[in-house]
Amino acid sequence: MSRPLTSFAVADGIALLRLERDDARNAINTQMLEEMLGHLATARDDDDVRVLVISSNDHLGLSAGADVREELDEDGRVRRMQLFADLYDELTAYPKATVAACHGSVVGGGAEVAVACDLRVAGSNLRLRFPGAALGVPVGPARLVSLCGLSVAKYLLLTSRNISADEALRMGLVHRVAPAARTEEVAMELAAEVAAHPPESVARIKRMLLDWDGVVQRSAEEGRGQVEWQRTGPGLPHHD
Q: What is the per-residue pLDDT across 112-133, written as a single tens digit (0 to 9) for each?
């Protein structure tokens, strides 16, 4: 049986979901996607959980994105893309507050996970990148436009350039910057501020924000497009 690639723990109203595949730069494969979706369901249904934090066991990187070296047949690649779309949709519409600890490399699928969360803490070593244009992947606009506006979203998506912590803070992509090794700690502190409020109030306000913004619908439409691109288009590069 494969070892778990993630961990999950709950304390003081905060669920901490860690990616734990540092030997592969926390590249996200099918198993990791399945585990993450399972943990999200557990946290969603647990009344003791008020806030969810996503982090990793390696402060050098939250995630390098999709594991393009994962050996999959055509059906497996489509299924993995569907799981990515499901993960983005689940996080975008999540009924509880979410915080991402964005230390080190936060690239591709890792960046999408981060911007699908409500709040983000950047490590001082942040290298945030959306490589969709470089790889041809039709993903990114649904959530970015809400966070930083159309102009900045175009800049990030069309250039596919690396963004530092200071740049991300200026653009409004992150809310706090911490020393790299303390990113998760500061993310937990931010989560505790939210967890101190009545959960019904937080949930209601978040639901209002999501409804008025329309991001849930945009995310779902984008997800359908990325899965179709994987099914009928060139799809993500893969290792044979």
A: 999 999 999 999 999 999 999 9
- Cβ count near 234 (within 10 Å): 10
% of the chain exceeding 70 in pLDDT:
98
Q: Distance between CA 227 and CA 77 in Å, rounded? A: 9
Separation of CA 177 from chain center: 17
Instruction: Spell out the alpha helix ranges (H) of 20-72.
Output: 30-45
Please state, in angstroms and rounded to a whole number, the distance separating the CA atoms of residues 33 and 55: 14
The average pLDDT across 65-90 equals 96
Residue 44: CB atoms within 10 Å: 14
Rounded to 10 degrees, the C-alpha dihedral 15/162/65/61 comes to -50
Q: What angle do CA 222, 40, 89 make, to 5 degrees?
A: 10
Q: Where are the beta strands (DSSP E) in the chain?
A: 6-11, 14-19, 51-56, 61-63, 97-102, 105-107, 119-123, 127-129, 176-178
Backbone φ and ψ of 93, nearest 5°: -95, 10
Token digits of residue 29: 């494969």
Phi, psi of 107 (to 5 degrees): -130, 145
Question: Measuring CA to CA, how many Å separate 25 from each of 14, 22, 28, 63?
Answer: 25, 5, 9, 6
